[in-house]
Structure formats: C-alpha cells, structure tokens
Amino acid sequence: MSTSPVYRTDLETLPLLSRGKVRDIYDLGDSILIVATDRISAFDVVMPTPIPNKGKILTQLSAFWFDFFKDLTPHHLISTDVRSFPESCAPYGDILEGRSMWVKKAKPLPVECIVRGYLVGSGWKDYRKTGAVCGIALPPGLRQAERLPEPLFTPSTKAAEGAHDENISFEQMSRLIGAAPAARVRDLSLEIYKRGAAYALEKGIILADTKLEFGFLDGELLLIDEVLTPDSSRFWPADRYRVGENPESFDKQYLRDYLVDSGWKDSDPPPELPPEVVENTTARYLEALERLTGRGLA
C-alpha cells in the first residue's frame, strides 16, 4: 500500500475523464473510477503542497455517509474495495488503495446544492451588506456564526475551471433543470443536511453548511461525488463554538484563514505551505473522521 502523499495520478491505461481540484476521474466504460488525491484548494486555487492522507480521509468519510443516507436516497457508490474493482484497475492497486471509489456513471446536474445552517463565510458577508443570504431575506440583528432560524437552500452554478461558482435562485435552478427535479434535490439536500447535522452534533461537531451533488442514471436521481466531508462542509467543534466569533474548524477553513493572515491573494501564485500548516490541516481532517465515524484512518 502506498504511504507517500499522492498529488496527481497518471493511470496510463485508463482514460482520464477529468482532473478536478482534488479528484482524478477515469472512465471505466459503463462506470467511473474516482481517485481522491492529497491536493487541497482554497478560494478555488489548488495549493502546490499536498496534505498527507487527505484523499483517504475524504474517501472514508464519503463511504460512511453514503451508507448512512442509503434509506433516504440511492447513491452512485459501488465499492471502495480495490479488490472488487474492474480488472483494468488491478495494475494500480497500491495507488488506489484507500483513496478511490468505483461508482455508477450518472449524469451530474449542472448545479451544486448548498445548504447553510449558520450565518458564516460568504453568507455572513452577504447578510451584512443586504440583510439577506443569496437573496433570501433574514431577520435583522443576527450575528456572525449564529444558527439560522431554518437551514437555507442556496444553489449555485458549476463554474468552468479557474472561475468562481455563481449563486442562483431556486427559480433559476428550476428553469435550468426542471421544476420537479429542482424541488426533489432541494428537499433531499435539506433533509440530508438536517439528518447529518443532528448526527454530527451527537459526536460533538456542528455542521455549519455543506455542498451536495446529484446526478441522473436511467431516470433515477442519485446522490453523487462526495458527502459531508471537510472539503465540502464546515465542521466546528461544538464545545468551542461561540456566536459572534469566527469558529475553529475541522475543515479547510483553517487553511483559508492562514492564507488571508499571510496576505496572500487568489490572484497571486499559490504558495508552498509550511510544515506546521500541513500538519495542523491533516490533524483537523483526521479528527473529523475519527469523531464522525468512530474509527481512525483505515
């Protein structure tokens, strides 16, 4: 089994479908291989320094949540056991072990499904300027990191590489994918968030917000990509949460804060990360895994 950080995969005999900020995706014919590397991005910029075992943590957490939500919605995961993968993957077993998912080939929806349970990040900035989040009006007087009266569904478009996602209204989303699918993914996203947040709180973690993705296969709506990971969600330690403050986190918000404090701007070349930032980021991801699943890194 490979123990070195994996920044990029080049599985030469498998057709590369796409290379995202974190995932390398390969075409297996009627299915897909998703490999979670140890790359990390912040402000839509991929850093040049890997975070050791990050891809394995993301894969293990997603597999946990796909199973957790299986009674609520079907999903695209077939297996994370490399021994069960198609024969064409066998030459790359050492690289794939622990960081890859064999999944059904669904057609992704052209939207990202974001659920916000707390007033933080871009939502907090939006609220301070407009009294609303993504056009949804909120009561006056709310403070930073305050729990919202009800979770908000705020979809966005999927931007092309190098660009930023754009928030859209539910009505725009309905025009884009159809009224019935839009209502279905909104309701599913909110229910996934609520169930996931309730479970996480039992483990001492506040799930502040999350981003979900869905796709269609043979007319069936599937939960796809990753689910409630530190890359797609904000996780806060419940015992150190304070309204009015920027909370500590188990996710890459720590990295974002470091970059802001360092004076780096997303128009600058991405910097190499110092060893202590790499170590602290790794520790946060690992603690999220251990708290949520009750298990360490497999």
TrEMBL record:
Q: Which reaction does it catalyse?
A: 5-amino-1-(5-phospho-D-ribosyl)imidazole-4-carboxylate + L-aspartate + ATP = (2S)-2-[5-amino-1-(5-phospho-beta-D-ribosyl)imidazole-4-carboxamido]succinate + ADP + phosphate + 2 H(+)
The UniProt keywords, alphabetically, are:
ATP-binding, Ligase, Nucleotide-binding, Purine biosynthesis
This protein's pathway reads: Purine metabolism; IMP biosynthesis via de novo pathway; 5-amino-1-(5-phospho-D-ribosyl)imidazole-4-carboxamide from 5-amino-1-(5-phospho-D-ribosyl)imidazole-4-carboxylate: step 1/2
- Name one process (GO BP) from the record: 'de novo' IMP biosynthetic process
Instruction: Identify the EC number(s).
Output: 6.3.2.6
Gene Ontology molecular function: any one: ATP binding
For the keyword Lipid biosynthesis, the answer is no
Entry keyword Ligase: yes
List GO terms (cellular component aspect).
cytoplasm
Principal EC category: ligase
Q: Which SUPFAM superfamilies match?
A: SAICAR synthase-like (SSF56104)
Where is the SAICAR synthetase/ADE2 N-terminal domain positioned along the sequence?
Answer: 17-267
The UniProt entry, under Gene3D superfamilies, shows: ATP-grasp fold, B domain, Phosphorylase Kinase, domain 1
Q: Which family does it belong to?
A: Belongs to the SAICAR synthetase family.
This chain belongs to the protein called Phosphoribosylaminoimidazole-succinocarboxamide synthase
